[in-house]
Specification:
825 residues, alpha+beta, 6-stranded mixed beta sheet, 3-stranded antiparallel beta sheet, 32 helices, elongated
Length: 825
């Protein structure tokens, strides 16, 4: 019997459909008008930019000038870029990792929630979905704190249980893992809801049949749930892959593609090229290639993960279907992803080609010349100029703009650099010294880690295994920072020692240079007795203001340096020094440290009164303060001067050849003080501190420094740093006084130079106050105190008191500025 209501409903439905159809026909124009605004907005803000981007990749456009047709040159430029292989490898790892994480974590969570008790499952569902409403930037900032080295929550937990504390985002080997960690446990996402909806709508008859056949929960998952949810798996794989390629925001905010290019991906390169370098056409070309790659990826996934099982056959064949069909499908997708990564990485075969940036968008490299060498047209820079012109001729799109360097000290240069960096206008290549760079005195993130480039072969040197292998074994430790990064490249060594007048030594009856500090002090007395001013003391001026501090403390604290050199680096940095001061080792209360300054006080009676401010880096013929004392040395009016290897060609060219000698700073032995250790200090003062000291600024400091431009800059430096090229331009720049840091570079054999060069391991260099290790303010205050002490206007007791106050306040200020708790060391 049919109910009346059923009859009425069944008969009314067709009539209602007919009325609706007639209503739609009558008001179709109204509907079209109502839809038109939405269609226009979608077209203007979605489809037009997409189509314009696809077309724009074939044009060079800076966003202002009219576009210029470039054909496929920009696509070729990107595919041949030195960073392409790294970008492709990184995105393949991130995409594969994101897909794997999404499938495992979100499907597992959906399974657990589905089979939980009804009330508990509802609560769990809301708890897991709620974080979706959090703004992504908040999530990223939270993970930035969690992954912060040392003080982050993750490192604190690891340290509490005695495990190593990795530098997640600054270690090239861990940075990608750190990016993948963001969002852990990766459940609060759309994939979870997709799987949950699929599981809640599985056919009950199939589930009941499986239960009757005695399937366990685990067996049910693999035999029923996964095969029937293949459409859901397919959509989650596609969405996760597309999201991984598109979402470069965590990388931008956490690492900006660094360290080096360890986390650089095509999306970030596209963004930086377009919005930081105004290379919109190039950025659109990268976007087009990404679109094609994701289209191919989607088609492969759609074909590979096609559902081949329905609920009717599954009830009889779950074991067979799982083993044959879906393992094959999953393996097919995995093989496709792995193959994509391998092929992408293989594309880097030409990434280190010497062609570098031979074609493509114009690139202007702004590089700072060595200090006080004049413009690039000056005779001192003739070698650099010639090599630059040769590089520009081979790389038509690259222009190198060399900037004169008029800074009198590295302190002034770094102050200017920090000012420029605050506005994002720093030069691309800046003159630096390893002391401030490796000690952590510069703000973090100002310079780039170039180690990823140095560990690859120099493209202009046939047969080399890595660029680093070209350097001498004593050079690389000076380039390496406490975290293992390399933020500076060092081109040459300068060595220091005492230059002496042969006429003055003969008059004083000194037959040979001193070999110990006690002999040195004895010879000072002989010179004074002969009526000769024994010594003009110099603070080093811009060359090396910490020369005596380095010599004495590195020698006298050699058996205590391990107690505060927490980073085990070649040169102590700010943390090491602050720890040493906190522990009372670098303290005037430590007899060993105080002895260094007592030895300096013993030199005061032999120093020229009121003339302790000469510039060791000044030209020999300078007659205005700070005076150059070399002529006084040759005339026999001054017996000894501290200076550097760069004096040798200067003195020779001034006609003083054969009238002077040079010996290294003598070791402090027990003959001078019971605390002497006799440690050789060869290489402690000087080292790879000559010409060719450059660092590469980060994009934060230099808004134009995209990863692509960084690769071009490093390619240019690789050209300058082939052994033959390095020896060539250093010979011109320093008249042979600079000793190249690369083993096979040609050198000039100057008399006396070999005695200043270390042949064995250099002891740990203890830099304390006078070399910007703690701060520029501490250096300036320390220079003033040393000047007054050497001039005799400040007695030792007053100097010791003021020096200790300077040590304590500078260490506290450094720790506060760098958020370091010295108490844990």
């Amino acid at each position: 019997m049919i109910d009346v209501m059923d009859v009425t409903f069944m008969g009314a439905e067709p009539r209602m459909d007919g009325r609706l159809s007639r209503w739609r026909y009558r008001y179709r124009s109204v509907l079209a008008v109502l839809l038109l605004p939405s269609l226009l907005l979608i077209g203007v803000f979605s489809y037009y930019p997409a189509v314009r981007s696809l077309i724009g990749g074939f044009y060079q456009w800076n966003g202002f000038s009219p576009p210029t047709y470039a054909g496929i040159s920009q696509f070729r430029q990107y595919l041949q870029a030195p960073t392409f292989g790294t970008e492709a490898k990184n995105i393949a790892i991130l995409t594969g990792g994101s897909i794997l994480i999404s499938l495992v974590s979100q499907f597992t969570a959906a399974e657990v929630v589905t089979y939980m008790p009804r009330r508990a499952g509802a609560i769990a569902k809301y708890v897991l979905v709620l974080p979706i409403v959090l703004p992504p930037l908040v999530l990223i900032e939270v993970w930035a704190y969690l992954l912060q080295p040392g003080s982050g929550l993750i490192d604190r937990i690891l340290g509490a249980v005695g495990l190593p504390q990795p530098t997640w985002l600054s270690d090239p080997h861990l940075a990608l893992i750190g990016i993948l960690l963001v969002g852990f446990p990766w459940i609060s996402n759309l994939g979870f809801l997709i799987f949950l909806g699929g599981l809640q709508n599985l056919p009950r008859d199939v589930l009941d049949a499986g239960r009757l056949d005695g399937l366990s929960a685990v067996r049910r998952v693999f035999a029923i749930d996964i095969p029937l949810l293949m459409p859901q798996f397919r959509i989650v794989v596609i969405l996760s892959g597309i999201f991984a390629v598109q979402n470069f925001v965590p990388i931008l905010l956490l690492t900006n593609g660094g360290p080096g290019t360890a986390t650089l991906v095509p999306g970030l390169d596209m963004y930086q090229s377009a919005f930081a370098s105004d290379q919109y056409g190039y950025g659109m070309a990268i976007g087009t290639l990404l679109f094609v790659a994701m289209l191919v990826f989607t088609l492969v996934v759609m074909r590979t993960l096609r559902p081949r099982t329905n609920s009717l056959t599954l009830a009889r064949r779950w074991g067979f279907m799982f083993r044959r069909t879906h393992i094959r499908s999953a393996l097919g997708t995995g093989v496709a992803l792995v193959a994509a990564g391998v092929l992408a990485a293989g594309c880097s075969g030409g990434s280190s080609s010497s062609s570098g940036s031979g074609s493509g968008a114009p690139v202007t490299i702004k590089a700072v010349l060595p200090p006080n060498t004049g413009p690039i047209t000056a005779a001192d820079n003739a070698g650099l100029k010639q090599l630059t012109q040769q590089y520009e001729a081979a790389h038509k799109n690259v222009t190198v703009q060399w900037l004169p360097n008029n800074m009198s000290s590295i302190t002034q240069a770094n102050a200017q650099l920090e000012s420029q960096a605050s506005g994002g206008s720093a030069p691309d290549v800046v003159w630096e010294q390893y002391g401030p760079v490796t000690s952590g005195a510069l703000p973090a993130g100002l310079l780039q880690n170039i180690k990823p480039y140095l560990t690859k072969p120099n493209p202009y040197v046939p047969g080399n295994s890595s660029w680093l292998s070209l350097f001498t074994r004593l050079t690389v430790p000076y380039m390496t920072s406490q975290n293992g990064d390399i933020d500076i490249i060092l081109g040459s060594n300068v060595e220091t020692g005492f230059f002496y007048s042969k006429a003055a030594f003969a008059k004083a009856g000194i037959t040979s240079p001193p070999t110990t500090w006690a002999d040195f002090m004895t010879d000072l007395g002989k010179l004074k007795s002969a009526g000769i001013t024994p010594l003009m003391y110099t603070t080093g001026e811009p060359c090396n203001p910490s020369w005596f501090e380095r010599l004495a403390t590195s020698s006298l604290l050699a058996n205590q340096v391990s107690q505060f050199n927490v980073n085990h680096s070649q040169v102590t940095n700010g943390l090491d020094v602050a720890v040493g001061i906190h522990k009372g080792i670098i303290s005037m209360t430590n007899p060993r440290y105080a002895e260094a300054w007592k030895l300096l006080g013993q030199m005061v009676p032999y120093s020229a009164s009121g003339q302790s401010g000469y510039g060791a880096c000044q030209d020999p013929n300078v007659t205005t303060p700070p005076l150059s004392p070399q002529p006084l040395l040759v005339q026999g009016k001054v017996g000894m001067l501290w200076g550097g290897s760069w004096w040798i060609p200067q003195l020779d060219s001034a006609g003083f050849t054969g009238k002077f000698g040079v010996f290294p700073e003598p070791p402090i032995t027990t003959a001078s003080t019971p605390l002497g250790l006799g440690t050789s200090t060869l290489g402690v003062i000087g080292g790879p501190n000559g010409n060719g000291q450059w660092s590469i600024t980060s994009q934060r400091a230099d808004s134009t420094m995209t990863p692509a431009k960084t690769a071009t800059v490093m390619n240019f430096l690789a050209w300058l740093f082939t052994p033959q090229h390095l020896g060539y331009w250093l010979k011109i720049s320093g008249s042979g006084a600079y000793i190249p840091t690369e083993t096979d570079a040609p050198t000039v054999n100057l008399p006396g130079l070999s005695s200043l060069v270390p042949t064995g391991k250099v002891p740990t260099v203890v830099d304390v106050v006078l070399d910007d290790v703690l701060s520029a303010a501490a250096t300036n205050s320390g220079m003033r105190l040393v000047q007054e002490y050497v001039n005799g206007s400040l007695p030792y007791s007053a100097f010791a008191s003021q020096w200790q106050s300077l040590l304590t306040s500078s260490a506290q200020a450094w720790a506060t500025q760098n958020h370091v708790d010295l108490g844990k060391y």
